[in-house]
UniProtKB/TrEMBL annotation:
Pfam families: Glycos_transf_2. This is Glycosyltransferase 2-like domain-containing protein. It comes from the Bacteria. SUPFAM superfamilies: Nucleotide-diphospho-sugar transferases. InterPro entries: Glyco_trans_2-like, Nucleotide-diphossugar_trans. Residues 55-161 form the Glycosyltransferase 2-like domain. It comes from Paraburkholderia eburnea.
Length: 296
């Protein structure tokens, strides 16, 4: 118990120092070593944000600009009505490679839907706006890619538990932050850790805003999971061993508070997807995560 308290205090202290570490490291970024990715196509890191997260947004972006493996583009998608309040310390990062794009307000979907509407032929790594990404985060995602497989790679995931084949247990009954999945586990990527999607991985409805706004208005992770699985993808966690550091105060407006804690909103959105599309893996193979797209 004593050791646990000491470790927690040390972690809390480290978390409080992380913003200063990012700022200091950014000052010497020209001396850091970078390398190009080896994926067959463009690699785009895509993210979004909104005003409650703007005060710490520059820290997340700086950590992404210091990735050891460089993407071809780092894009920040911002709703048109929010652009005028985007802080100067974010806008000035356009000089260092950030690309700021304006789009319709799709809420959390802004991180990927506008990008997919432009092209579905790129590798897209989505990142959240409220945490520190260690320097090898993108390298670990890219390094986990197996070119001969249609896989979605994630840094953080949950293990889906089942009531019976093809019927997931309630969301709060899943195993959160699952770190040791095997091939028989069905894992659920979470956007907070970052997810790498290969070209052409999604089902045809992925950009249909009428459907996702009705079925999963705040559950972009749920929507993207279904859209990839319906198109034959499986899911795998990278070998990431880092602990996620979230900026202080940035989670006060997190969708998790609404989705998982209030009225089990995630369960309602999952139920909507089951009703519309069914379970995206075959009943006999749902434990192994075998897609049912060929049966449709």
């Amino acid at each position: 118990m004593f050791v646990s308290r000491v470790i927690n205090k040390l972690r809390t202290g480290f978390d409080k120092l992380t913003p200063y570490f990012v700022e200091m490291k950014y000052l010497i970024r020209s001396q850091l070593r970078y390398s190009e990715h080896d994926l067959p196509g463009r690699l785009i890191v895509s993210m979004t944000s909104y005003p409650p997260r703007f005060p710490t947004l520059h820290l997340t972006i700086k950590s992404l600009l210091m990735q050891r493996v460089r993407p071809d583009f780092l894009e920040l998608w911002v709703a048109e009505d929010d652009y005028h309040v985007l802080p100067g310390n974010v806008r000035e990062l356009e000089n260092d490679g950030l690309i700021i794009r304006l789009c319709e307000d799709f809420r959390s979907y802004k991180k990927i839907i506008p990008r997919l509407k432009e092209s579905k032929n790129d590798w897209v790594a989505i990142a959240d706006d409220d945490l520190y990404y260690w320097s090898t985060w993108l390298e670990e995602l890219v390094g986990a890619v197996k070119p001969d497989k249609r896989e979605v790679i994630c840094s953080r995931c949950h293990k889906i538990e089942f009531i019976r084949p093809s019927l997931p247990a309630p969301y709060t009954g899943w195993i959160f932050n699952f770190v040791a999945p095997n091939e028989k586990d069905v894992i659920f990527p979470t956007g907070i850790g970052g997810v790498l999607y290969p070209p052409g991985v999604f089902f045809k409805d992925v950009c249909n805003q009428n459907i996702f706004r009705e079925l999963c208005p705040t559950g972009d992770d749920i929507w993207l999971f279904w859209m990839a699985a319906l198109n034959g993808a499986t899911f795998r966690r990278s070998a990431a061993r880092q602990r996620f550091v979230v900026w202080g105060g940035s989670q006060e407006c997190a969708l998790f508070n609404q989705n998982a804690l209030f009225d089990n909103y995630n369960d309602r959105q999952i139920a909507n997807m089951l009703k519309k599309y069914g379970w995206p893996f075959s009943a006999t193979d749902s434990v192994a995560g075998t897609s049912a797209i060929n049966e449709r």
